[in-house]
Amino acid sequence: MPSLLAAMFGLQGRSATPPEGASPERALDRRSPMASDRACLPRSPTGRAAPCSPWSPLSATHSPSRGLASSPLSANRPPQPNYPPLSPPSFSGLRHAIERAAPLPADAPGADHSGDDVDEAVLGDEAARCSSTVSPPPPVPVGAQLLPRFFFPGEGGRGRGRPRAEDALEAKRALVDAAWRGAPSLGLADFSRAVCRDLVGLPAMLGHPLLLRVNRLFDPTTGEPERVKRGSFLRFWEEEVAPFDEDERFFRLLAQPGASYAVVADLRPLVDELVAKHPGLQFLQDAAEFQEKYALTVATRIMYEVNTSRTGLVSEKEARRARLLAAWHAVEEQDDINRVERFFSYEHFYVLYCRYWELDSDHDGIISTEELLKYGGHRLSRAIVDRIFAVGHRPLPPVGSPPSDRSVMRYDDFIYFMLSEEDKGNAMALKFWFDCVDVDGDAVVTSTDMRLFYDTQSTRMASLGHDVVSFADVLCQMSDMIKPAATGLVTMHDLVKPEVIANAGVVFDALFNLDKFVSFEQRDPFAERHKRDDPFNCDWDRFAYAEYNRLAAEEEAREELGHMNDSLGEWGA
Question: pLDDT, tens digit, for every residue of 511-570?
Fold first, then answer.
């Protein structure tokens, strides 16, 4: 075992997702009682499943896009839980924009003027009488000569330097006139396409929120709330569009007028527009319950990744750094919602919600400590589950609301937990687990903190017949892998170093996640090579794809069993 651990921590690749059936405590029962309790949902005419009302049988057919059976059940089918519909598999990453450096302005500070002549007359009489030689200014460092000027006081929005001449109102007036075509006001469809997308540079699906913002700021008493007057938009352009680049325009639309931050509630109008207009979500139009769950999932995933400060308040800097506007452009350009894995994939929502439903055994909408212990076939120790409920990161409640009840976990809380558990190769997940392991809250994980969790882990390993490695050996291997600045003291800075972050999650798996720890120790080198070459961007995308296929296969088997029971019932009658 020690030699295997040494080989494990010496690996520089990414941590492996445990293979199915590799649980050290028990083989993961893919057809567990919880899984068999999943809802059967009616299928839409387009081949997508449309959600049924709670505890209702199937009532329509399904297109065999995944090889699922498609036959109605009889009316005497036993009631089943209310689960969201399936969606066809797909995967792809977001496009990455190429940013080019701005050319060096001619008047940029730090330019080389060493050859300029100096007129002695301008030194004045006092300088002329000075007998000493004036020392030349120190040479400007070579690196400074390459940096263009990037700050111009009072000119333009952040990230662009100075306002672009093409964004001035006079430069855009002809295009505005062409959009309105002499009419006093413009309807939503034309406004979304010709103004929101072509002029402002925002996705066309956000045309309605933009229209409402224009009227709210510059025409609050309009008698046509779904139309925009030309004069109102010209004033809006001067104050809310021309001075800012596209990222800041998007953020100002997202946040409330005058606010310097956005909260999760500000995301909902934009997500609602996505649900209503995206062609990949049309099969949910008659399922208000799952529209609500999907919208909550998207908003929570955005907060999880974008709000790195964990304050519940998204700043313009955070939105820009996370390329939030680029994600909205990507989802508008892609008809298959599942190909936009970042934030918006319906398959990812399906996996998150089904896992939550399976754990919530009494279906009261909350998960208790005992229910969370069942996650992943009891892979987590009780010590870490208690810490998750005590200090694990959660979405903050709205401003002015009372603190959330830490004794239970709701669906949005569960999203934070599951994203952190299934992909520990990013800073958000590492921060989640770092705070859980940092028992004394001093921003440093010491050997004492780690020993508290490893004692429970070693007891579980011994009870299951595994060779138990001493804590001293494990601590030595951890230090060799992450190379902390101070021996025996681990900080977040040590974990997020570029050469460490991909494997840093193994440190936490060794402390409290027995299933993943043993799976990583027994990893197949060929599987690791294949993993590095697969099309997935991260461990979460990889896990969600495999888990969705498993859930779809279980749905197929359950439907086939139901059809057999129906046939036997008709034959017996």
Answer: 999 888 878 777 777 777 777 778 888 999 999 999 999 998 988 888 888 767 766 666
Nearest of 516, 518, 519, 550 to residue 422 by alpha carbon:
516
The answer to whether 164 and 293 have CB atoms below 8 angstroms apart is no
| Domain spans, the chain | 165-242
The secondary structure of residue 139, as a DSSP letter, is P
Contact 217, 236 (CB under 8 A): yes
Assess contact for 17 and 24: CB atoms under 8 A: no
The one-letter code for the residue type at 370 is E
**Residues 246-249: contacts with CB under 8 Å, at least 24 apart:** 246/200, 246/201, 246/202, 246/325, 247/159, 247/316, 247/319, 247/320, 247/324, 247/325, 248/157, 248/158, 248/159, 248/316, 248/320, 249/200, 249/201, 249/202
| 241 and 249 Cβ atoms separated by less than 8 Å | yes
Q: How far apart are CA 571 and CA 419, in angstroms?
A: 48
The band of 85, judged by pLDDT with boundaries at 50, 70 and 90, is confident
Model-level pTM?
0.73
Query: Tokens 């989640």 — which residue?
Result: 432
The one-letter amino acid at 474: V
pLDDT in tens, 313-338: 999 999 999 999 999 999 999 999 99
Helices 447-463 and 427-437 pack at an angle, to 10 degrees, of: 90
Of 197, 189, 195, 194, which is closest to residue 333 (Cα–Cα)?
Answer: 197
CATH class of 165-242: mainly alpha
Joined together, the tokens standing for residue 368 give 């208790």
Q: Which long-range contacts (CB under 8 A, 24 or more apart) does 229-233 make?
A: 229/184, 229/185, 230/176, 230/177, 230/180, 230/183, 230/184, 230/185, 230/186, 233/176, 233/186, 233/195
CA distance linking residue 89 with residue 77, whole number of Å: 28
